[in-house]
Amino acid sequence: MINFSFDGKAYTAQTGDTLAAALLRNGIGLVGRSFKYHRPRGIMTAGVEEPNALVTVGEGGRAEPNTRATDVFVYEGLVARSQNRWPNLNFDLGALFSLASPMLPAGFYYKTFFGSAKRWMLYEYFIRKAAGLGNAPTQADPDRFSHRAAFCDVLVVGAGPAGLQAALDAAEAGKRVIMVEQDNILGASLIRDPQELDAAWIETTAARIRAAGGRILTRTTASGYWENDLVTLTQRLSEPGQTPTHGVAQRLWHVRAGQVILASGSIERPMAFAHNDRPGVMLSQALRSYVRRFGVIPGKRLVIATNNDDAYKTAQALKDAGAQIVAILDARPAPAGANSGHRVYNDAVPLSTKGARHCLKSLSALVDGKTMEWDADLLAVSGGFTPVVHLHMQAGGTLDWNEDAQAFVPASSRQNVTTIGGAAEPQPIFKMVPVSKPKKSFIDFQNDVTLADVDLAWAEGYRSVEHLKRYTTLGMATDQGKLSNMAALGRLAEKQGVAIPEAGLTTFRPPYTPVTMGLIAGAGAKDAGAHVRRLALYDLHAAKNPIWQPLGYWFRPRSYPNGGETLAQAALREAKAVRNNVGMTDVSTLAKFEVSGPDAAAFLEIICATTVSKLAVGRGRYTFMLREDGIVFDDGTVWRLDENRYLLTSSTGGADRMATHISYVRQYLCPHLRVSAVNVQEHYAGLAVAGPQAKAVLAALIGEDPPRHMSTVPAVISGVPVIILAASYSGERAFEIYITASDAATVWAACETQVNALNGALYGLEAMEFLRIEKGHLVVGGEVDGRMTPHDLALDKMLNKAGGYIGASGLSRPALSEPGRRQLVGLEAIAGDIPEGSMLIPSEGASPQGHVSAAAFRIIEGGSVALGQLVDGFSRHGEILIASSPTRGQKARVRVAAAHFYDSAGERYRD
Amino acid sequence: MTKVTITTLPAAPLHVFEIWGNAASVAKRFKAAMGFALPATGRSGGSDALRLIRFEPTVWLVEGDASALSAILADDGAVTAIGGGIVRIRLSGPGWWTLLMEGGVFDAEDPAFSVGCSAATIIDHVNVRLHVISDDACDAYVPLSFSQGLLHFWKEAALSL
User: Fold this and answer.
1) Which residue range(s) make up the domain with A101?
2) Backbone angles phi, psi at A753, to 5 degrees
């Protein structure tokens, strides 16, 4: 026996019970309240199509709302709660909505919530209070979710008799086979009808499949069919709300299959008649499952309503179990069912039911034109069978109409998918039309859509099935219309006076059953979906307890506060150290490419828009790169390390894009060049030393005079070979030191010792930003924003006059150099601080003429400066504008200036 | 539970060996000098002292002493050091195939992916190069910056294979 609770009351279940079976075993028929009218609802099915018995299972962050009681297996300690009721399930004040149902027909909200925008705020409050079923947990999910890839020759979906046989045939033919079954045991229809093939056959077949190398996954649903026969599987490794054995609750499989065989069976249809939604009305096959699989008999006095032969198996199963078969209402004319041994009424269709709390009291039917009534606590209905064609349709398939079965069946598909078994050949049925009053004849149980709602939509002019769906919300609940769509189509076709296939179809979209958001996120659910990229010197930085800054996937030190310093205080101190003395920082994340070969310079002059070939060995220069359309997309430096060997650096943020660009140019545009371009971004860790004392630091480290500005030398620091580049991003004399990343800690330590000896400081990204803004250096993603040309950024004088670089042709378009373009400017605050990201406007209320791309404090002098983009900015120096940020409620008066505020002659670079 | 052991190997010199011309001639020179042929795409060749693993049509990853390779290439290619940016992680035990399917897109479970095979693929968004070194083990070459994250990912995944 297994202990569980429902709405706080303790119950016991038997091993293998679903929650639905366990509740029925304990005499509980009322399980939930309906979405809109709060009508009492019970258990209608025994599978994933269940629309009524939705409960919340589990506690805390592990709670899973809207779980189908038919699709969760009871485990020790399971906690389930009913939903959408207040104060409790038996006495729900929300049921007052049912009394108001005449005022709440389909689309009532389109006709109700009118008036001013302020009124909407009132409506919204009540709509939010009333909407929804279960509540999403407010605590974080403690479990993990996994994504796994799999490849196979044959994927079989469904482990009923057809699926098992198909998987066996394929596996024993030497194919790699995966078979999935959403239940926790194999057999599907054989579980409720074991007389056709017994449990021993299922066991033997599964063993043979496994012996032939096949993989069988239970509790696994094929939830989506995508292009190129990619099928996603949702595997439950633990039940909803259950603590997983190894931490992983569910696994999302991405299966790439050579062939997909769908043995997904069919879903039994309910019938539309008044009060067909009460607890005690069940689908016939579901009832048979509860009796034969779980040994649960949900009622004593049973009436069956059917239009096919299958329901007679249910009658026999219930009779065998000891229930009384009060009547069988067969919609077919005599002699259907005549030899069944039961009391059969032909030409009989249900009209209405009356109910108690957990079961029915009685029901009425129209029999051969006359109304009859029976006392019964249970009504099993079988309105036919709907093949499960969802995956076939998601695969881009088409459907044929099977007149005998009154059902759509899979036809052709543009993917390698085949449907077999009950889904391909549904049982024949007798076509019947509802005769009951439409107002309480539910067709979409989960969204409380009745035949009357379909009639109303039709009367109001909704002709397309897609419009009907959205107006009535039919088929839009978590069950996605598995029980309702065919009934709605039948009604729509009846209204249109056409056959069902002519009424149209809605779209079948993944997932087949609801999928948790955590499963979609996978392992990334815990860290925003991506790994953090760590610097080679991460541990060394972390020991100094910096403020970290996410930069793409990287985490970099933003500043190293002393004591109780704020970020701004620490950054300003660090920046002043660079201006007055010396500082060092980690620049390892910069993109770096080693370009080698006789054609290396030619290759780089295609990548870069500046000249490269004239560089002497040991020299470097600033460079930038254009897109084909002439827009600047990255910048950096290029260094000639040797006769045929160059080092190209570019921005951190653009590193991956630049790697792709270089690969594209190498492989597609220049396969003829004798060149190798290798991404060495992570091979080299980098550190920068900047400030008036930087030269002294380098001299002490390498034992000789360091290279002059924009020169490079190889050197050795503490026994480690390094490359020294004399380049500056701060406006001070500065050096970048590149070291094989595995040796970086040694060099960093040596350098830090020298910097400390000169009373220097470490500096982070915030100080670097102050320094570069004051100096007027660009940053990719800020000033270089995918819209600016070299002319706009005042880089045009550096362009390679010989052309030939990517973007040269695009750049020649007249529109890129016409007046009216935004151009790079500096901005000095007249008063106050310049808000970053603010608009530049000439006066209050005027249209924006540009924006502030980056703002900072002046490091020594104080005051606020910024870089920005301004229409015709080069010719507007001295103009006074307003930098306005309405979203922050900040503004400042600014003076337009040249885009550099510090050492415009570059004298501080010189020794 | 399927067993897999995850071990970070010590840093080692790794190089890119790229040919841009006269491939047949380079191949001949290489075999004459090194005693084994340049391996085909998706395969490896050599020994623990020097192993070449081919991941791209014209590019091999070199593990070991690469000092002789520049001379073999002459003006037909280049050798570039990349070892500082790569962490080698060994996955051993019968579960390594299954572990590689976690967060993966590559068919590591294909029986043809056997000793001496290599692949460049993506695992949980990280670009990884794989080399099967024995029936019981596979080496993964992982970018340094992602190595801690991927190690954590693999160790967690290994608990629930």
Assistant:
1) 2-112
2) -60, -45
